[in-house]
Amino acid sequence: LKQQKREHKKKEIEPFKEGGCQPPPSGSLVPLGERDDNRWLQYDSTNLPKTQAQWESTTFVDKTHWGFYTWPKPMLTYAPAEEQPPLGRKREDMSEGEAIIFDHFTNQEFVDKLIGFLSLEDRKGRDKFSNR
User: Fold this and answer.
1) What is the Rg, in whole angstroms, of the alpha carbon atoms belonging to the chain?
2) Own/partner pairs, 25-34, CB within 8 angstroms, 24+ separation
3) What pLDDT, on the 0 to 100 scale, is given for residue 23?
4) How far is residue 97's CA from residue 110's CA, in Å, rounded to a whole number?
5) What is the 8-class DSSP label of residue 13?
6) I need a surface site. Which of 2, 37, 38, 115 has the fewest CB within 10 A?
7) Distance between CA atoms of 104 and 45, rounded to whole angstroms?
């Protein structure tokens, strides 16, 4: 399925500008953990987006470790939703490979059989779950 994933647009951001602070001098050591430059990444229940415009102007970072130790150069994040490929496409708009996968997962018999295979127990009571 990863081979079928469509390319999503990314934008480059300046993390210190997002945080409203100055970058440290070149060559200086930056302490680990919570700092002024990564506070914008942290959850703040007093500053939740309440409107569509606020939600769309929020910058989301998909790597949880970015900003805790250091910032990547360049720092790329996903562009806003309106700049991304459409999600709810019709079958006619899909590529041949996507259409085959779509057909299989909309076939209830296939889904039932797949769930049955995925839930088989090899050794009753001694199976261990592995997500690999």
Assistant:
1) 22
2) 30/70, 32/68, 32/69, 33/68
3) 86
4) 17
5) E
6) 2
7) 42
Cis peptide before 85 (omega within 30 of 0): no
Q: Quick one: tokens of 32?
A: 């680990």
Give CA–CA dist 47/40, Å, rounded: 10
What pLDDT tens digit does each residue of the chain (132 aa) get?
Answer: 677 788 889 999 999 998 899 888 888 888 888 888 889 988 889 989 999 889 888 888 888 888 888 889 899 999 888 888 888 899 999 989 889 999 999 999 999 999 888 887 666 666 666 666
Residue 11: phi and psi, rounded to 5, are -130, 150
- Determine how many CB atoms are found less than 10 A away from the CB of residue 98: 16
What are φ and ψ of residue 37, in 5° steps?
A: -75, -15
Which amino acid does the sequence have at 115? I
